[in-house]
Amino acid sequence: MAQPFTPRVDGNRLYARGAADMKGGLAGLVVAAEALVESGALVRPVLTLVADEEDASIGSEAVIAALGDFALRPVTCLIAEPTGPELARSLRGFGVVRVRFAGRAAHSSQAELGRNAVTHLGRLLHRVDQRATDMRAVGGDLMVTVVRGGSSPFVIPDAAECIVELRTSPDGHGAEALDEVTALLDAGWDARAERVAARDGWRLDRNGPAADLAARLGAAVSTGTAFDAPYWMEAPLWQAVCPTLICGPSGGGLHAADEWVDLDQVRAFPAALVSVLGDWVPDAD
Q1: Dihedral angle at the C-alpha atoms of 88, 93, 96, 97, nearest 10 degrees?
Q2: Domains and CATH numbers, the chain
Q3: In the chain, N or C: fewer CB atoms in 10 Å?
Q4: Which pTM was predicted?
Q5: Is 89 within 8 Å of 246 (Cβ atoms)?
Q6: Range of weakest confidence among 52-56, 102-106, 211-215, 273-277
Q7: Cβ–Cβ under 8 Å, residues 99 and 185
Q8: Within 40-116, where are the H helices?
């Protein structure tokens, strides 16, 4: 994509960086909120447009912490991540663990005088692969995504490190990653593991305002609640505040050079929201 931040329309697709993930959804929320306010609907939409979902979620964390300052008590939270156009039923959590290995340097011609930190890292890679088979059987996963070690040829590495990622089932907890990885370490490796990040999985409530709104919104866009996201989104953070659901327009090429969003979905999404929320009274159900 020669100009990733200059939108380009080709047929029913709008190409641009972030078009599907998730500027298309944000545009739909803005349009729907404006229409609901202008129509005098009973529902009071509150837009929270935040950044950093791909890292530490400092945007949502800051908004959630500030809700009390604005006397806001949300009944339901809708996150317009690209589900295209199904509603999300669940998502997986994750945990990230850094493992550092200490060795002893020596000339590689006398390897017996050293302790090879990279060798120990390699043995962990094998154990992670073995454990991953069991994790996948229950809806999770385990993998090493970053490795570093050694400084030059002819020197036994005295240090190495790797990043291990855990993907949990929707009912799992990201904090379990540290215990999972620590259990794979051998006492003779001189290895230390530390948790870098952790987020829990999530499921859509079976009852209550989010479940009711999901059913109504699914009917309005002629889909069901059937999308089980293999990745994480911020629903668990907002679920701690109020019942939460996820639905938004999608397309293709997310995080890639040729990202695009389906314009039919972008148009249908706010129209469905206005139709459903125009007379929605959650306490009446």
Answers
A1: -160
A2: 8-91+202-284 (3.40.630.10), 94-199 (3.30.70.360)
A3: C
A4: 0.89
A5: no
A6: 52-56
A7: yes
A8: 58-66
